[in-house]
Amino acid sequence: MSTPPTPPDQPDQPDEPDRPATGPTEPLTSGDPLGDGPERPGATPPPPPAAAAPTGPRRLTRSSSDKVLGGVAGGLGRYFDIDPIIFRIGFVVLTLAGGAGAIAYVAAWLLVPADPAPGQPPAGPSRGLTYVGVFVLVIAACVALGPGLFLIGPPLVGLGLIALLGVALWRAAEDRGGDGGTALRRAGLGLLLIVVAGVAFVAVTIGAAVGGGAVIAGLVIAIGAGLALAAFTGGARWLVLPALMLAVPLGFVAASGLEVNQGVGERDYRPTTVSELRDGYDLGVGDLRIDMRGIDLPDGRTPLKINLGVGSARVFVPEDVCVASDLRVGVGYARVLDRDSGGLDVDWKHSPREDPGVKRLVIAGDVGIGAVQVVHQPDEIGDRDFRGEDFRGRGFDPLAQDDPACEATA
Amino acid sequence: MSRRGFDPASLVAGIAVSALGVVLLLDQVDAIDLGFGYLAPALLAVVGSILLAVGLTGRR
Amino acid sequence: MSGMTAARAQPPPLRRDREGALLGGVCAGLGRRLGIDPIIVRVAFIAAAAAGGTGLVAYALAWALLPAEGEARGPVLRVPGGRDSLSVAAGIGMLVLALLLLFRQWGLWVGDALVWPVVLAAAGGGLIWRQSARAADPAPARDAPARPGGRSALGRAALGVALVVGAALIFLYFNDALGPARDVLLPVVVVLVAGTLILAPWWIRLVRGLADERAERIRSQERAELAAHLHDSVLQTLALMQRRAGDPREVAGLARRQERELRAWLNGGRPIAERGTLAAALELAAAEVEEAHAVPVDVVTVGDAALDGDAEALLAAAREAMVNAAKFGRGAVSVYAGVDEQEVEVFVRDRGPGFDVDDVPADRRGLRESIVGRMRRHGGTAEIRSVAGEGTEVELRMRRA
């Protein structure tokens, strides 16, 4: 800080007898009584700026001086210390290539506050609008992705949870100030973190799926213990993030019952005799097709076991066979003839009445992530993994007894 | 910024994460069967309690 | 080392708060204890009530067990939102959600179609209600930040609306009424859009006219306020001055006082006594010293800081220095105060006869105790420089946390 002002000179002072330490009695008028400016008359202004400089972290605001439309590009340019023209070009290019630029610009226009009036503290980011934006995005994603959402949903939720916690911890450790270079670096770092997190997520998922689950669980416990112990020496809150980065994919794999230690690829089975029928059909990742239409099944029960990690399992059964099904799908879709169900933790047990003399195929299926469909003809499904063309299935009903193939003839 | 001293939020987080790890381990050794119906509440409870602890003992 | 941060108050005990109560004040009390908006607690209770009635039981228990305090029926307790409040709210929200999902898993469930819409609608409704309650408040003080509040208020209201709409959509979805609803909605939307386009220019003109009218009203209001102030203070002072024209010192004092007040009013919009900052307090102290000792005291401040414990100590030390300078100095006293992020410094100078600092015996209260000792006790420093014949300067420094 600079030196203080010198005490005001006192021109035109009347001569005063020397006084010991009692109050002086000069007239109060000194200097120029009509002094202008914020300082007292006669005082020299101090070199530091007269206005109070606002303190606090730098905020991204829409520029009010450099604005073509809403000042978004101007504000961005000022925050990152880059020429705004670059952002303008970027917006235009992104708009031409799919309209994303226009959407981003409008979102920024709504979410980024405008420049504050000089002297006022900058307006905080409008939290409410941010939440509205997130909410709308979520709804739009649900609507757009439709039935495919329940495949993407859970990992997304997991990532969302981690992101939420990361944001909370980041803000708890936020540093103040910084210039354009710092902001750029932080943005780059954030992006890098997201990429690293995504890669780590996938890696842990694979690791858990191939059987390393116990190790990962042990790691999580270890980090938890370390975190609790570190609480006594000042805390190490950042440990939560790697812990979650391990726990969430592991949880996901564990809950969906995913196992991929049975191979990868497409398997197509067309047994023609009962002896060709295997004890169990297992596949780690891929497409599993079992075409039973060529077999002449015996009367009574014939078991069929399917174990699929990730992918699609299709079973084609002849028209005259009664189908009993015990299907479990961690995340995905199940369809037996004209009934279907989907979502998380699909637990499907359907056992029609057992009539003597009826051919009965008892399908026990276990799919981690994906779909299992049991139909009569392949063209009922087409190539789609979830639902065929124009298929409107009836919901799952464990007590349904309406399959004509299950009724004894004669 | 960080002063030496007891950080209750870290303790809460440590306990929550450890509990989650134990649940996951139990599922790995097939002692319990974890489905999404239990995983979702568990995850939410862990993250929620951590957020709550961080918020209540917020440190600048 | 103590700094300039505000002292941490003890968290309020857990009580039922009658003042902000809707029913029994349980949510208001919880909100106050946790430092979050009671709305969040209310939504949590409603959600828990929807899941097997737990919320009702918990509320009744709390009502019975918690002692109540506070006057009944005041305005809704508003807790200032902050970063921590968000984490707490999110944390509570997730815990409630976890509980709901657990109940769902255990079968204590009314049904998806009912619970989720109710929870969302409660959250959205609560938000909207809170926003409208805030809007119904009387106009804020003159220099309260209106703009930032306005924007986030709009955002919160919009979020509330979105939540309620979402609740309705989910309800329709679960009852398989989404398709027919869409068929009904499309013609309505078309009519709305067409109507908006037709009426838009007239609407915009109306809104602009209202805004202009409001601006004009505010202007005339300001003019009236200015006139009132001038009348109350300046004119009266001028009249007083005329009456005391025989005593030049008193006239000068009156003029100085009025000038200081008018300048402050023009700059800050509020009388100095009401602004609780360090700079304002310094000016106030200077004015008092000036009046008491009939010595001009000039104050120049750069930056400002809140008035907390350490700042008050600094203020007291500065005031002592001013009194000293007024009493023993000759001529005007000048005070310079500079505030930045790291520290506050205050210089008090006079052009008096000066004295020899070392000559002051250790037990003289004036300098040692009031100034130096006080600063030291609060983690600051005080330096007194004096050269015989050239005046005295007191330098006070205090670190901010």
Can you describe what's shown?
Chain A is of the alpha/beta class and 410 residues long. Chain A folds into 3 domains: 57-125, no CATH class; 150-256, no CATH class; 264-406, no CATH class. In chain A, 35% of the residues lie in helices and 19% in strands. Chain A is built from 7 helices and 6 strands. The N and C termini of chain A lie far apart (105 Å). Chain B has 60 residues and is mainly alpha-helical. Chain B has one domain (8-56). The model of chain B has no long low-confidence stretch (mean pLDDT 82). Chain C folds into 3 domains: 16-178, no CATH class; 179-269; 275-399, 2-Layer Sandwich (Heat Shock Protein 90), CATH 3.30.565. Chain C has 11 helices and 7 strands. In chain C, the strands form 2 sheets. A 5-stranded mixed β-sheet of chain C has the order 3-4-5-7-6. A two-stranded parallel ribbon of chain C has the order 1-2. In chain C, β3 (297-302), α10 (309-328) and β4 form a beta-alpha-beta unit. In chain C, α2 (38-50) runs parallel beside α4 (83-106) and α10 (309-328) runs antiparallel to α11 (365-377). The longest helix of chain C has 66 residues, at 178-243. Residues 1-8, 73-83 and 138-149 of chain C have low confidence and may be disordered. Classes of the chains: A alpha/beta (410), B mainly alpha (60), C alpha/beta (401). Chains A and C meet through α4 and α5 of A and α4, α6, α8, β3 and α10 of C.
